[in-house]
Specification:
Elements (H helix, E strand, L loop, with lengths): L2 E9 L2 E13 L2 E6 L10 H8 L2 E7 L17 H14 L6 E5 L1 H11 L6 E4 L7 H20 L2 H8 L2 H8 L11 H12 L4 H8 L13 E6 L8 H9 L4 E5 L6 H4 L1 H11 L2
Parallel strand pairs: 3-4, 3-5, 5-6, 6-7, 7-8
Antiparallel strand pairs: 1-2, 2-4
Helix pairs in contact: 1-11, 4-7, 5-6, 5-7
Length: 276
């Protein structure tokens, strides 16, 4: 079951309250999991039980996504504001420099948390921010198309599509290399999460100017990329390695943009190896 925590954030217009929904499982050193844009913490479900055997796993709904409400007025969705929100979340949950793993937007946030020395290790799965302008425009077009489909398709149509392997491929084939492995209920839930994501447009708009150009020294970093990623092409991983020369670059054979579903055992091993 998800829990919700509320904490204050200072803004130029005064203190605002942020609420974040999360689920916590397992025991050991803390490991925070961050999903991508338009998704929710359940994106990590295929690997959570494996990780929880060795880690205190905290899967987070980013503000404006999943069960987490939108950010309060006065707190933009740009990286300069969302990263401090996550730092405040760590303090509220009494997490002293947790390990962090993130996918897509979550991977970019994880790298920024590593740069700012707020975490012990970083595993970034297909992180944003290493694109050319053309690649960024392409990726954002894919995301907007998925969002349009989620918003316009009636829930009954989504349920019918999710009931077949072909329908699940139509709904989620952009992000999964093996969409048939995702359960109908999971596909229905994540399509609803994409439809209801109050932070989607503001986050996408803020991301239009993003490039990750900083090294992440003194923190173990793994950048992992699915060989079948159709959103952020795998050559971006080579650029990430050039920007962060100390990072370990890992290929995820046969995995798409959200690899946790496509090969849970491999993704869990990569995350655990980085956090050891």
């Amino acid at each position: 079951m998800a829990d919700t925590v509320a904490f204050p954030i200072g803004t130029p217009n005064g203190t605002r309250t942020v609420e974040v929904s999360y689920e916590r499982h397992g025991g050991g050193e803390p490991l925070v999991l961050l999903h991508g844009i338009g998704h929710h913490l359940q994106a990590w479900d295929p690997v959570t039980s494996i990780l929880a055997a060795e880690r205190d796993v905290i899967a987070v709904d980013l503000p404006g996504f999943g069960r987490s409400p939108a950010l309060a007025d006065g707190i933009p969705y740009d990286l300069a504001h969302v990263v401090p929100v996550l730092g405040a979340l760590f303090e509220t949950l009494d997490l002293d420099r947790p390990h962090v793993a993130g996918n897509s937007l979550g991977g970019l946030l994880a790298l920024l948390l590593g740069r700012d020395k707020l975490v012990r290790s970083v595993t970034a799965l297909s992180p944003g921010g290493f694109w050319t302008e053309g690649e960024r425009r392409y990726a954002f077009a894919v995301l907007r198309a998925m969002r349009l489909g989620a918003v316009t398709l009636p829930p009954r149509a989504v349920a019918r599509l999710a009931g077949t392997a072909a329908g699940r491929a139509a709904l989620t084939g952009s992000i999964y290399a093996r969409p048939g492995r995702r359960s109908p209920d999971a596909v229905i839930a994540e399509t609803r999460a994409l439809r209801e994501a109050t932070g989607f447009e503001a986050t996408l708009t803020a991301g239009s100017e993003v490039l990750f150009t900083d090294d992440v020294p003194d923190v173990p970093v793994t950048v992992a990329w699915g060989t079948a990623d159709r959103v952020l092409l795998r050559r971006q991983g080579v650029r990430a390695k050039k920007v962060i020369p100390g990072a370990r670059l890992v290929r995820l054979p046969g995995c798409g943009h959200v690899p946790m579903n496509d090969d849970p055992a491999l993704v869990a091993r990569v995350v655990l190896d980085t956090s050891r």
